[in-house]
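Late entry, evening session. Most of the bench is empty. Finally got around to the prediction I had been postponing all week. Sequence below, unchanged from the version circulated by S.P.
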Amino acid sequence: MATGLEKKTLWTKNLNDTKIRRRKVDENQTITSAHYLTFELDQEQYGFEIENVQSVLDFEQITRVPRTPDFMRGVINLRGKIVPIIDLRLKFGLSETVKTRESCIIIVNIDMNGEKTTLGVLADAVREVILLEPEQIEPAPKIGTHLKTEFIKGVANYQGSLIIILEMEKIFTTNELLLVHKSGSGVETESEAEVTAVS
């Protein structure tokens, strides 16, 4: 049976392979479908478009930073780069993410005022990479979810499971992102996270 770190490394490789396959599509061919990395929070499934996902890490030690938003658990050192770690459970009004054998950190890139910002997002577990056609994604429901509808890009029924596709740039306000980015600047961590990068 694979260890937690081996599983996270395999997820990173799968993400990389999927991105490479997409890059090989003829430039003249219109791509309408998209791949999503699905993960679990509080027994519900969510998804990020993989073009925004850099890698999947094991849930290692996080360095706490004082005077930061409650949903910011701290920072990690990713090859010399300080990356803020966000707990979406706290942002969504749930209890904080607990470290388990399956819990992990999803490294994502989001747009902040036209510049790419790297964040780590805690997840209870990573599930799989799925391919969705546009017609499979429906608008966010007005009721039936505890999330604000502006956080949700859409919902998809995939093999009997409801996947909530998140709009990462809309989960945080500009001020929150600036505060998180500023909080992570100049912080030194004890060790560098072990991860295989996605190109």
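Two things to note before I forget:
The CA atoms of residues 89 and 96 lie 6 Å apart.
The two ends are 27 Å apart (CA to CA).
Will write this up properly tomorrow.
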